Amino acid sequence: MRGRPEGAPTGFEERIMTAIYTFDVFSTLDGYGNHTGDWGGYWGKQGPEFLEHRFGQYSEQQRLVFGAATFRDNMEMAAAFPGAFEEPGSWITQLRNLPATVVSNTLEGPVDWPDATIASGDAVEVITRLKQESDVPLRSHGSLALNRALLAAGLVNRIQVTVIPVITGKTGATRIFDGLPDFDLTLLETRTLDGNLQELIYQPTLH
């Protein structure tokens, strides 16, 4: 099923105000963004349709936004596993090659990343300005602390949640939405990938 609820802003209406900002996150059914168990990457649930869909999304013209901790993690993984960030047809390769803004008051350039700009200062002010200036959509994968702050400030236009079909009551790590205020969510799109994963795209509104 795909569609737009009646009364929801059109893409054009939103673009004339500011660039669309999407918070893109993987979540277990019980709301965890990571694990300490033996599940492996993607909790072992990835399939060809999911990976192809991710590649398509990250092949679109856009700018990525990272918090400092997530950016450091990605740089460390790229150094440790260079093949994973250079594989043709991989969404991870596309992620690394997209222009990126890193919100950090501790990192200093240059950094080992093809097209990264470090922006210091208050995160809400940095992203408010970036949304006003950017002529392409903005997307942030992970970076939970940063995106919690941006959600609370009303700067996130889309929450894209890929629901991983597992419950990690024992090994779940990092609750995604803890500490946030209450939100109403308007469902904009939904799709099933590989018959098992659910991608849900919501428009959040402070309750």
TrEMBL record:
Which SUPFAM superfamilies does its entry note? Dihydrofolate reductase-like (SSF53597)
According to the entry, every stretch annotated as the Bacterial bifunctional deaminase-reductase C-terminal domain falls at: 23-194
Which InterPro entries does this one have?
A: DHFR-like_dom_sf (IPR024072), RibDG_C (IPR002734)
Coiled-coil portions: none
* Protein name per its UniProtKB record: Dihydrofolate reductase family protein
Species source reads Kribbella koreensis
